[in-house]
Each structure stands twice: as C-alpha cells, then as structure tokens.
Design brief:
With about 375 residues, this protein is an alpha/beta fold. It contains 13 helices and 11 strands. The chain has a domain of about 110 residues: Helix Hairpins, CATH 1.10.287.70.
Amino acid sequence: MKARYAAAFTLVVCYLVMLPSFGHAQRRQPQPQPSPQPAELKAAVFLVTPFAIEQNGSLTGFSIDLWNAIAARMGVKTTAYNVVPGEDTSQMWDIVRSDVRSGQLDVLVTPVFITAARDAEFDFSYPVMETGLQVMVPATAELAQPPHPFMALLGLLLSRRMLLWLGIGMVLILIPAHLIWFFDRRQPDGITQGKPYIPGIFIALVWAASALVVQTQRLPGSWLARVVAVMWMFAGVVFVAYYTAQLTTTLTVEQIRGSIEGPGDLPGKQVGALVNSSAVDYLAAQNAQVETFEQPEQMFQALLNSQVEAVVAATPILLYYASHSGKGRVKVVGSQFNSAPFAMLFPMGSPLRRKVDSALIALRENGTYQQLYEKWFGAP
C-alpha cells in the first residue's frame, strides 16, 4: 500500500514540475500569419479609350482612376504602369500573358473579358462592369443625309414587311383562282372561256389578282363562280385596307423615331465597326453592310459625315464618346447585347485578388465607383 502511495505521489510531483514548460510551449506555438502584401505593385494597362489614355506623358482613364482608388484603400503604391505596346489585340494579350506568368506583373489593370480558357489560367477580380455591344446613331435627323427618293421607294418595295404581304397575297390568290376555274371551266362566255386547266388557270389567276387590288367589272358565267368572285372581291377590300393601314403605321413610326433604334434595325443598313472586333462578326450574321475602321475616331467621323448610318462597338467606348467629344451630336440607342463580364487579371493563386475584391466592393458601397463611372461614361 505504501508503495502505491509513493508511486502516485511521484506522478503528481512530475506533473507539477513539467506544467510550466507545457504552457510555455503552448504560448510559443507559431500562429498563422497573413500573406505578405507588397508595398509596391507592378501593374500593366492596355491603351484603350476610355479605360487607359496616354496624355502628355501621363496616364488617365477610368481604369487608372479606379485602380488608384483601390491602391489607396489598400495602402499600397504602384511602381509603374507597364503600357503594353502594339495595336494588335492578340499580340498585346500574348505580352501580358507572358509577363503575368513570369511574375513580372502583379495585375492587369485594364479589364478584359472573363472566358473559361482564361479563368483556367489566371485569377480575376470581381467584374468591374458588365459590358457588351451597342448601337450609336446621329443625334438629330439633320446629321444624317436623307436617302434618294427612288432609293427610299425601292427599299420600301423590297422591305421584309412588303415581301411578306406580297407572299400572303399570292397564296390567297391561288384559292379563288382554282375555285373560279373549277366552277367556270364549262362556261364558254365565262372568265376562263371554257379552257382546260392550262391555260385556264393562268387566266383565273390574273383575274383573281386584279380583283384583289381593283374591283373588276366582269363576273364569271357560273352562278357558283360568281358567289366565289363576290366573296373574293369583298376579301380584297379588307386585305387592301388592312395592308394600307399597316404600311402607313410603319412609315409614320419610322418617320417619328428614326430608321435605327436598336440592333433589330441593322439588317441591310450601312454600319461601321472596328476591324477584328466581335461587332464585325455580329453584323455579318445580321446581313448588315459592314464598313470597318482601324481607330474609333475614324469610325465616329464616318458616322458624322453620313458615310455610315450607324456604328456598333463596345458600350464603354460609345458611352465615352457620346458624353464627351460627341455630346449632342450622337446618341446610343437600343439595349446592350452580347454582354460579358469585364474584370482585372492576376496570376493564378495571387493573394492580391481578395484584397482588391474587398477594396472594389467598398468603393461601390461608398459611391466612389459610381462617381468615376459617371465621370467617364456619363450618368446612366
């Protein structure tokens, strides 16, 4: 019994002796540290108006102002903006991809479209904006050269609505023409003069066509054919009246609102776009007459000179021009289409991304983002 008490006493003494060292070891256990944040960041930009503009040796633009606000909120400085040279978009992207992969760049400030292929290779911030294509036209009718009257009439006759009504009329003519021939085929003094199906049906078709637009005075010989003829002439009055009303409404609306109010009005129109842009493929699919330009300024001048009836480009480019040098002379019409998110780009696994996202969200909440947006693109 004494030996058991002695062993227990020894264990208690050993525990009391070693307890301070356990607490000291626990206090000395290293805690996880946040990822280090560089005091100065290396950023790159594409010179794309209005995101990044080079003026008098310095950079300005929406992306520059936004990044400066983000960096200030994060408490970091940008060493220098690496301006990516070249006008070829694919070449510019290859340069940035190489520099980001090698660690020479921390962030691409100019936002780019988020795609599945890029997302597998890089990290992206929260979308800076959702953007796509939009249509811009002259602000007033005086800026657009009116078409020649003959060309306007030809365009009306060959319009989709006119061809649709013509097709409906031709289908409707087939029904009474066959009925007239069938009931009147044995009447020598009738419309078809008792002739067989060919050429009798062609005579009936001509009569039905003329009865559709004008009230013919000659009636078939058979009384059943006369009933069909009277009903057809009455239907012709309704058809012509309804068609005239529809045509008048269409012409009146176009005269009030202008010929182009959105992407749905572009087929057959002379439309400008930037070379190698997604707008070129879209316009080609819409059967528009596409004229391409190397620079946005050339495209805008062509619109003001009535060389094109409208232009299609990325919404930020159009909004910037419409709210600055083109203010009062052009207007952006219709809704945005082919939209996709725009975001800043980081190396894969960059600890900087979450910090930028937090700063970007804060700038949206306190109104700074909206102020910068309205500065460069005008009020929504």
